[in-house]
Amino acid sequence: MHHAHPHTFSDDIAELTGQDPSLCYQCGKCSAGCPVRAYTESPPNRVVRYVQLGFDDEALASQTPWLCAGCMTCSTRCPKEFDLAAFMDAVRQLGIARGVKPPVADMRSFHESFLSQIESHGRAYELGLVFSYKMASLHLMQDVDVAPEMFLKGKIGVFPHNVRNTDAMKNIFRRAAEVKE
Ligand code: SF4
Ligand code: SF4
Prior knowledge:
This protein has helices at about 10-15, 30-35, 45-50, 55-60, 65, 75, 85-95, 105-120, 125-135, 145-150, 165-180. With about 180 residues, the protein is an all-alpha fold. The protein is built from 11 helices and no strands. The structure holds iron/sulfur cluster (2 copies).
């Protein structure tokens, strides 16, 4: 008897990222180099395992996709060339689409503030990001003590450095919004 394969969370991720989560064979090389591993309850490869096994709720409840810095260390190290950074991004997007409350407080505000900076400037504009995040999260005084040193070390630019073609970036966001609808 033939059973149709029901559409899974893993399929949703495969559609968003163009890569099948079952590619991952759980070697753990990604997690060994992940800079946020120490701050989360699950190493990144465990989140992939959840998805492989159909534990969607566990994957969506994990802090790891929300704390993922998108640094690509995992993606460049993976012997299977699995783009784990893109996988984490997809888990976040699908969580938002399903109305899941991010398990890390204010991460959604940060995520959306970051994306709005990319949409406007084509790259991160730190001062704009700080301002937009503080307005969204209402943590107005958070981390103000480190600001002077960051300015002095040139970590926070006063003006944005836009990419040459900001219209192209805005088009990408417009197209993505159309696809979502
Ligand atoms: S390095 Fe690649 S194959 Fe190994 S656990 Fe991480 S994602 Fe899976
Ligand atoms: S992209 Fe995310 S999951 Fe991968 S190493 Fe960086 S922080 Fe960890």
